[in-house]
Design goal:
The complex is a heterodimer. By secondary structure, chain A is mainly α. Chain A has a domain of 246 residues. Chain A contains 20 helices and no strands. Chain B is elongated, with a radius of gyration of 24 Å. Chain B folds into two domains: 211 residues, Rossmann fold (3-Layer(aba) Sandwich); 62 residues, 2-Layer Sandwich (Alpha-Beta Plaits), CATH 3.30.70. The chains are: A mainly alpha, B alpha/beta.
Chain lengths: 529, 303
Amino acid sequence: MFSKALFKQSMKAHWVKWVTVTVATCVMLAIVIIVLGSLSINDIRDSLKNIFVQADQESELKEQSIDGYELYLTTVDMYKMLDTESGQLVLGVINNITNEYAGRLAELQGQGDVTDEQVQALRSEIAQKYTESFATMLPDISSDYINMFLMSILTHYDEASSSGSVDTTQLLQNAYLDLVYNMAYETYLAKEDATEDMALQSAQGAKDTAQTAISKYQELGADADYSALALDYMNDYIYNSVYDMQIDAGLTEDEALQYAVITKVISNTAITTYQFWLSEDPDITKEQARLNSTQSISDQMPEKVAEALTELGNMDMYGLIIGSIFYRIAGLLLPMVFVIMTANSLLAGQVDSGSMAYVLSTPTKRRTVAVTQMVYLLASLFAMFALLTIVSVIAVFISGGNNFAINYGEILLFNLGAFLTMFAIAGFCYMCSSIFNRTKYSLGIGGGITIFSLVCTILGLFGSSVVPSAMRIEPMNFFNYLSVITLFDTTEILNGSLDFLWKFGILAVIGIVTFIIGVFRFDKKDLPL
Amino acid sequence: MNEIIKVEHLTKDYGEGHGIFDLNFSIKKGEVFGYVGTNGSGKTTTIRHLMGFLQPTSGTCSIMGFECWKDAPKTKQFVSYVPGEIAFPDLRTGTEFLKAQAELLGLKDMERANYLCQKLQLDTSANLKRMSKGMKQKTAIVAAFMADKEILLLDEPTTGLDPLMRETFLELIMEEKERGKTIFMSSHMFNELEDTCDRVALIHNGKIIDIANLGDIDNMPTKTYKIEFENKDDYAKFRRLKYEILQVQPEYNQVVVKIDNEQINKLLASLAHYKMKYIAEIKYSLEEHFKEALKKDKEKGNV
């Protein structure tokens, strides 16, 4: 079944080719891995990521500025309203509520000691009773907040009455500040990655803003330009708080100043833009104006571009270059050339030229010839990939071992996959070499389909998911269905999904079946020798 | 085991009249069997069957009792082969090739190979790719003859050899014959077969037209002679004698006569009376024999 003499002959005929291809491929791989390991190509990706993070932060800062500005103006508006008739009406209603509460409380106290729970229950009952009528008056505010507002009026009433002087306006103001605080707190907590500390800070900021607005109103009256005042206030507020925050974070005064100025500019821009939108377009809602003024870079870009850039930021350059480009395309090319040429000259080439006659004029069986040549093809391919594996493992070791973007396990699977792909291709080329008596058919079909596969993989790369959508041409993914190399899926190996295993299985089966067909066919056919 | 090679009803139909059809012949031990035919007549196809490279459409051929297709590896124990088209494996020099071939044959002793190289004046250290056609042919001959097997299958072995080397090669064939080898040799040159073969088969359009025994041809019971006379008188007188005259050329005073071998003395006695310019025997060659055979075959076909 095996002829040592023939094996030696095949080795002599092909060793130069083998050495050239193996050395070239190994050097290529070593360079790719070591160069990628020393350059940090992911820097680009990281900086891209930073841009988006900064953009998001900026957008948030703008939102905060506008919210603060709005809060300031709303507070002033509310005080203006209190001075009008309807404002007096509201005060009257609140007065009624507190009176009812006081009466009910006195009633309870007349019956004996009153516990905190009883007081709390009474407050809820009264707050509940009036919530609905307030809710119809103030449709913009949720009934939860109105309820909260009424509760806090009653709490402050208790505090005020214990100290002796009850002023309804003051009650209203205190409850309002509580409400602002709570709303800010809850709004902040609802955001992504919000922390308790930050929420508290934000709530305090809102309360401070409202407080400032009230005192300004009380100082200047209804006719002052509150838009300008609110803008100034927010600028100063942002400036100061950022400065303090940076100093706390350990930055020097100069650096903190720099940050503070930049944020102030951003905040100023946001608020003036907001004012601009409101004044320019009388139909615009506040929501829309706010949205227009707070967009970050990624919001302003067309959705597809933003998506593409985000994807680019998330792209795994190492996986793409080492897996999809080297192991599936560049690194396969030379072994393919070796396999196509060698498989052809092991059988078809010798039948075509007639030199096979010499082997077959000795008592060597055809089966022995076919098996020996198959063993040679497999052994040379195996030796090639064994060397390639050793080189790749050393290169990964040099590039930082398991700290490298591609670890030992993944690189071993890449080598195994590439070997199995070549095994299937070698089987196919060998089968063609066995079936055809003419080199032109054996090379044309065996080599042609193999190179076609490679070219399809190159074209298919532009449609595959490893290429960021900006560069991806979806229909080109079609080419991947035409290539056997698609069964070697480096992306799945990197993702840690185990789907690549059954594809490896198919590659192995293709190889085994084609080799078996090749061996048996050579036994049965006519040879023009 | 007298019949070393046996071919029975061997047919390989490639369609459109191509192929070989119903070949029957057998070759005895120690015989040199010539196989002659024009290009494309089916010589190589026959040999490929004997080598087990082609599977017959029908019929069989066997060597030493082993079927050539099914038991090909077994027949190779007895057979050496010189292919018609010489192409060597991808090796560097002739020496390397002969060594590789010896290894495949399990041949340890290279003495015979060296002797053959010497005889054919072959320098085996030459690069295989740069060898001339003749050198390649010689290398192929050495590769086949060095195994010293009982049967030699030679497909046009003298192509590419210069006339001197052809002589040497034919000597080698005679030498092998004396050593008891059975030789099957194809050629499209009658004269070299005439000199070496015991029997020659003529194949034409895939069919064997005739198998000639060279001994019979050499010892034909009749012979033809061409005689030219000095003058017209003698020529006219001779024509009146009762000899079987095949051809005359009055302008040259020439006659061609055919007589039984026993009558040669009588002829010479008759000729003694006339003045002759010369007398020459017209040899009955293999070529003529086959031409006649082909003609007969054609006539048969026409009928």
